[in-house]
Amino acid sequence: MENYLNRISIFSRFLLVGILNTCIGLSIVFLSLHALNMSYWSSTLLGNSVGACFSYILNRNFTFGSNVKNSRAMVLFFFVVSASYLIAYQIGYHSLLIVAEKYSFITEDILIVIAAMLYTCLNYFGQKFIAFKRDN
């Protein structure tokens, strides 16, 4: 099994974890937004928080095989996740305010998905180079 995992690139493993994480996180976001009538910020924060907890465990062990101390990795991981969230969803929120006025077909849901893609990119590089960077 370990030999097989070594042949899968880190980015591919990150994407596999990300797909599962995204399904969980966005399901919670859209459930919170539409079924529970929570706000944009509350819904995206709740969904990303649940997804982040799941993501930490899988990315630390499966994706990056990090040997960083757990306490240090957790702090750095949640710093990266928080920064990625704030940047991506601020851009998504402000885009909603600007773009939705001109183009009625662009909905809050579409911008949440776009923000989630930006979040994924920022999160990958932050986790790879900051949170789970291997100690040599």
TrEMBL record:
PANTHER family: PROPHAGE BACTOPRENOL-LINKED GLUCOSE TRANSLOCASE HOMOLOG (PTHR38459:SF1). The lineage of its organism: Bacteria, Bacillati, Bacillota, Bacilli, Bacillales. Keywords: Membrane, Transmembrane, Transmembrane helix. Belongs to the GtrA family. This is Flippase GtrA. The chain crosses the membrane at residues 12-33, 39-59, 71-91, 103-125. InterPro entries: GtrA_CellWall_Glycosyl, GtrA_DPMS_TM. It comes from the Bacteria. It is a multi-pass membrane protein. Its main location: membrane. It is found in: Membrane. The keyword Membrane applies. Residues 13-132 form the GtrA/DPMS transmembrane domain.
